[in-house]
Write a structure and sequence with these properties.
Helix content: 40-55%
Structural class: alpha/beta
Distance between the termini: 41 Å
Shape: elongated
Number of helices: 15
Length: 358
Amino acid sequence: MADEKQKRGLFGRLFGKTEAAAPEQPDDMPSEAAAFQLDEGMADALAEAPPAPVKQSWFQRLKAGLAKTSNSLTRGITDVFTKRKLDATTLDELEDLLVQADLGTETAQAITKRLRAERYDKSIAPEEVRQVLASEITRVLSPVAKPLLVNPAHRPHIILMVGVNGTGKTTTIGKLAETYRKDGLKVMLAAGDTFRAAAIDQLKIWGERTGATVISRPVGSEAASLAFDAVTEAKAGGFDVLLIDTAGRLQNKDGLMQELEKVVRVIRKVDPTGPHDVLLTLDATTGQNALSQVEIFGKRAGVTGLVMTKLDGTARGGILVALAARFGLPVHAIGVGEGADDLQPFDAAEFAKAIAGE
């Protein structure tokens, strides 16, 4: 059983669903002949009714979400390479374009170096450049595309959520809780954003939705004290997973970062091995500021993995590539919308294809 639990990763159950059987028709269902005896007005209404929306796959939603980033890169590459040979000038222009898309200097230089070696002073189509772009992005991202595993040796496995305001910490917690419950794990949520009543209420709603136990304290309570109580109760109750929310805080506010450090210290008083994961949620629209967030939260709270949200609202989706190249931290999930279903496991090849417009 322990080995089986250890294999379970973030959102893994979503990829093994089977289609539900068609519901049985009630006895009073009209006959086929009767069903076709529609009056003229009803027939006209049905004929004019818009077709039901086609449900998009995750890759289609990802591609649509990254359209701003992809379109910007595609237009730029087309402008640079249409009817021009690959020379020093075009390579410089391409590198500038990639850096402006927040892909990072490391990745931009790797792409131009590869093109220089393979096609210098030769004609090259924009489509070929995009293929190289997708290939290099996949190379950079593949090592960091990792699921979030629950270690059965830890009871509970403690996951601390950190990040600035509005990055989607609570939605991520809810989605994780839902997934772990489906995996048969016993889950506790700790409402560690004690500054905001709305944050506490939101976590309680997720607890009701997922069947997870929620521990909270009155607004204004000390976050570190809540964390201490949550770990103590989770250990006593035999919980498999403890997800601890925290207040959103800017990385340059020293007082708030000291409070976060205290939360980590207090967790370790109860469980010296915890927290076992510290997940930083990032808003893709912040662009280059995400680099600073990862650096400082990493130093102050020991970040172990990333979740990036709001990729659908920016032309700066390339920042995820820059983060991977610089820090090498696992990227567990990405989001392209506000709904829980818009947060999905990170797949490097899919992301690369979507951002390169393939």
